[in-house]
Amino acid sequence: MDSSRKFIIISISAAILLIILVSCTLAYSGRDNTLMSDKTLSLEINGFNVELPLSENNAVFDAVSLSSVTENRIKLLNEVGANVKINGKGIGVGTTIDLKLETLSSGERIKIQVDNEKDERVIYLRTLSSQLPEMIAAGESSYDGNYFAAIATGGAALYELNKQGEVVFYIAKSPEESNGESYRDFKKHVFENGTIRYSYQRVNGDGNDIGYAPGERVILDDRYQEIDTITLAQSELAKAGDLVDGRDFILIDDNHYIVEASQLVLVQNVPDGLGANVMGSKVVTTLIQEVKDNQVVFEFTTDSHPEFYGLSVSDNDYSNTISQSPDYSGFNRMIIDPEDDNLIVSFGNMNTIMKIDRETQAVIWKLSGSGDEFGMSAEQKTSGQTDLAITAEGYLTVFDNALSSGQTRILKIKLDEVNKKILGYQEYKIPGKTSLAYGSTQKIGDNIEVYSIGWGLLKEGNVAISEIDFNTGKKLFEVTLPQGVANDRVQKSKLEMIQ
After folding, report:
1. Backbone φ and ψ of 204, nearest 5°
2. Count of the separate structural domains present in the chain
3. pTM
4. Residues 454 and 315 both lie in one domain
5. pLDDT, tens digit, for every residue of 432-479?
């Protein structure tokens, strides 16, 4: 074979080889560009499923829940034909890793790499969800303890703040994820043996309004992992699985709790003179149910006390001419008095605080309202009050929304329960603050007049949390939320708290 022919054959062969290489390269390149585009990474993060499309490189997403208090438990749920790393740590299908985050911040992200040696995607999770409302904190509390709150208006979110006002834990869903679901009454429980639990109300999508917040109570362990959900237990007054309200909940231990629910009932015991329907009146009654070891051990209903109807100052259309569901009592809060283990309950629509015997269901005393038994003056009486607490010194503290005067206030009252007398009465006001709904307060520490205040739904302004030293008249700490966003209640955690 002459050299020229040999050269031609070699050239042709080289050309063919080049064509094959180019074709393979193009095919390979085509696989790279499309390999991840139709894939979705499914993770379970702290018990919530998160779907992360891999169609776009460097995309940024939200997690439903993250914490800087404890490690975050992340599980890979699906096979995507690739290696997956989370902040550099490999994770296999069906396996779980624990990821510690030092802070939750809009500038801090979790890096997720997906790589099968043919294609690669890098995506990110915000450590601080964009679904949380913007919170602006000023000052710093001088007293230990974190703040727990749930958003009552403006989204499906709950959060925990440290004393600097930094988010250290949250659950937050987008409108698409929540499907109308919302949260209420997020708080910490510390049992007598030191066990820590958290709980919140998961409100049904059709119950997200100012009022009963019907749904189920969710119980979290000390790592914020869901371990139980609670609804009403079977009894003569309720069916197993009936929804509970989100206005309050007491967790005594893992098998012992007190819940509350609102029930629409038809009653025949409305006293004469209150305009009752002659065929029977439909009313919303409050049911309080205590359950221990799956057995109902205490139940109380407001409709079993006909004298309550006359105490109502709102929604008392017993003829059902205007309202088919008058909520004449307006349950707000309940606490256990550590002195005698009986319940103290706030009924906002009766302007009344009552102590109820947990054995006999009898009303031991009534404070404020038209049925007041302690001789309160008109100026001392509460109006639409919500939150209650007992201080270490034995004072009853009240968040008095004071709807009749338009000036919300904090009350500290010392009661002589035997002789039905008021031994001490102190009120604190912040000019211009009127809470139309929700709201809460706690006295911080012993022998000092420092209070943590959750302002609830303010008539004006967007202050959400304040910590105030009333001895000096100074604010120590304050958090604001965007206009139109409000917490339902704020709890500042203290290790000595039992419920």
Report:
1. -60, 150
2. 2
3. 0.89
4. yes
5. 899 999 999 999 977 789 999 999 999 999 999 999 999 999 999 999
